[in-house]
Amino acid sequence: MTTASDTASGADATFGRHVAPSTIFTADNLDVLRGMNSACVDLIYLDPPFNSNAQYQNPFDPEARFHDVWSMDRVRKGWMLELRLKQPPLHHIITAAAVTHGETMQAYLAYMSVRLIEMRRVLKDSGAIYLHCDPNASHYLKAAMDYVFGHRNFVDEIIWHYGTPSGGRTAGKKPVKVHDTLLVYAKSYGDHVYNAQYLAYSEKYVRERFTHTDEDGRVYRTRKRAGGRVDRQYLDESKGVPLSNVWSDMKQLYAYHLVHRKREETGFPTQKPRALLERIIRASTNPGDVVLDPFCGCATACVAAEGMTNGRNPTLPEKRRWIGVDVSAKAYEMVVLRMEAELGMKETGKSGRLLTHAGELRHKVIFYEKEDAKGNLWRRTGGDVPVRTDAPQPFDLTFGEPETRSPNIREIRYIDQEGRCAADGESLALRHLNTEHIVSRKRHDGPDVDGNIQLMCQSHNSVKAEGTMRELDEKMRSRGEEPWEDRPSFILAAERKYLPPRLRP
Ligand SMILES: C[S@@+](CC[C@H](N)C(=O)[O-])C[C@H]1O[C@@H](n2cnc3c(N)ncnc32)[C@H](O)[C@@H]1O
Q1: 360 & 474 share domain
Q2: In this structure, which of 27, 40, 193, 490 has its CB flanked by the most CB atoms within 10 Å?
Q3: What pLDDT score was predicted for residue 488?
Q4: Alpha helix (H) ranges present in 87-226?
Q5: How much is the mean pLDDT over the chain?
Q6: DSSP, res 354
Q7: Could you identify the atom of ligand 1 that is nearest to the CA of residue 334?
């Protein structure tokens, strides 16, 4: 899928192999982020799942849906391990959330944390990140962001007041929800781009304050200055009201007048208005800068960046470059449809794809296959996987267990197994659990690495001896015991990886 323009543009050297502006990736964003060069984007806007315990469905397309329901089954054991070993404070924040909120929040935060770490890395020193969330998880995300970006780089918490309360929107014994939250962090506070924004004065304000008209018909108000001097402030020269951190002037799409909705609405359930993205992009980037949306949905941020114009003179184009990622292939279809319908783009390049201001539209796809029966985890199988060109050793994208033995693997496994014996799942104190090779060293030549270690109580350890987990289960059943039904997936993964092929489960 690599096009000639990828290499011709020199994008590889700046962004990483397969990564270039005007690209939509159909992929898990972690795989894209990990393959991107450091410090190559100016702005990240992300509108991830909010941990809302809901499943979203595009009414026009049964395939375009995503699950915002979380459990530790969806979180790779390797992520917790990586966080524990490489980012202990973040691991503490996540485990604290498990205590105060429960497993869903723990799983959600682990999923977000591994991605936020990469987002910080790919952001330029002058860059900023806007994390769109809501009260479901904003408090936990802020703690995670304080660690990942540093609390001194916290810029603001913006309240997007998107709707008006109505009887139809009441839910539960509480007031009607009418706002989302944007957590804004700079990579390095003070070095970040911020273009002050102004809102137009209200008609009432103009009527009441700008009460004079000069001989040329220009409207103005008078302002008393020090020393008794009186100045004229002309309305057509006034910037307006400085933007505050509560944004009430742009509504959710469904709140728009029907005519406006028809133009912009795609049917995507969590679509954000373009005006919201335009404000963010205008405030935190300059023309030509690169905007990354790693959860781009129906590509609102990409369309907004491509269609950017001057804030005061909308006929002046001030386009930004952009990169979008979404697990759903719909994002690419959407970006084409929306650029044609909303931006009036028709011109195509050599390969017949729409021509954006930064070159031909690119679609890069990473392929996956189900890793477990329920489809909680997906294994990458190939495709246009980005590869960093700025690092001598590309990151281990598989997030696999390290091929070494960690000194604290016993404690790590205690967390991974939630304090249970790997044989029957009984909860035990750590002192009653021993480390044990999942695939026997003696009988099957299993390696002495983290990925082949589990915890088991002494008595089951003797029952298993040098056998496989299946043999252990059979022996346990013959003794009238029930094997642990919800064994963590790393145990099965170890047998699949290290047992001789004929014995693999
Ligand atoms: C709330 S929606 C984004 C909506 C978007 N801001 C818009 O205006 O269209 C979240 C999106 O994240 C995508 N998503 C969830 N997990 C992802 C992942 N790991 N990598 C890439 N996309 C993901 C979902 O498919 C969904 O489209």
Answers
A1: no
A2: 27
A3: 86
A4: 88-100, 103-122, 138-145, 203-209
A5: 87
A6: B
A7: 9
Q: Are residues 461 and 490 in the same domain?
A: yes
Q: Is residue 399 included in any domain, yes or no?
A: no
Q: pLDDT, tens digit, for every residue of 231-280?
A: 999 999 999 999 999 999 998 886 655 556 667 888 888 899 999 999 99
218 and 282 in a common domain: no
Residue 355 domain-assigned (yes or no): yes
Ligand 1 centre distance from Cα of residue 356 (Å): 23
Burial class (CB in 10 A: 0-12, 13-18, 19+), 108: buried
3-state secondary structure 356-396: ECCEECEEEEEEEEECCCCCCCEEEEEECCCECCCCCCCCC
pLDDT attached to residue 377: 72
CA distance 437 to 339: 55
* CA–centroid distance for 209 within its chain: 45
- Ligand 1 atom with the smallest distance to the CA of 300 is 8
* Nearest residue to 45 (alpha-carbon basis) of 210, 182, 231, 220: 182
**pLDDT tens across 27-86, in order?**
989 999 988 999 999 999 999 987 766 655 444 444 544 566 677 777 776 778 778 877
Dist CA 184 CA 45 (whole Å)? 9
Cβ–ligand 1 distance for 51 under 6 Å, the answer no
Enclosing domain of residue 219: 199-237
Asked whether residue 403 is assigned to any structural domain, the reply reads no
Q: How much is the average pLDDT of 127-135?
A: 97
380 touches 41 (CB < 8 A): no
The verdict on 274 and 137 lying in the same domain is yes
Nearest Cα to Cα of residue 149 among 173, 184, 176, 201: 184
CA of 65 to the centre of ligand 1 (A): 9
Assign residue 306 a region: left if phi > 0, alpha if psi is -120 to 50, beta otherwise? alpha
- Please tell me whether residues 336 and 473 are part of one structural domain: no
Question: Could you tell me the CATH number of the domain that includes residue 352?
Answer: 3.40.50.150
Q: Are residues 231 and 325 in the same domain?
A: no
- Nearest ligand 1 atom to alpha carbon 266: 9
CB of 149 closer than 6 angstroms to any ligand 1 atom: no
> Into how many domains does the chain fold?
3
Residues 168, 279, single domain; the answer is yes
- Mean per-residue pLDDT for 450-473? 95
For atom 10 of ligand 1, which residue has the closest CA?
A: 48
- What average pLDDT score do residues 371-393 get? 76
Residue 111 lies in a domain: yes
Looking at the fold, whether 161 and 218 belong to one and the same domain comes out as no
User: Residue for token digits 């003794």?
Assistant: 479
Residue nearest to atom 27 of ligand 1 (CA): 297
CA of 54 to the centre of ligand 1 (A): 14
CB 18 within 8 A of CB 401: no
The span from the CA of 85 to the CA of 404, in Å, is 13
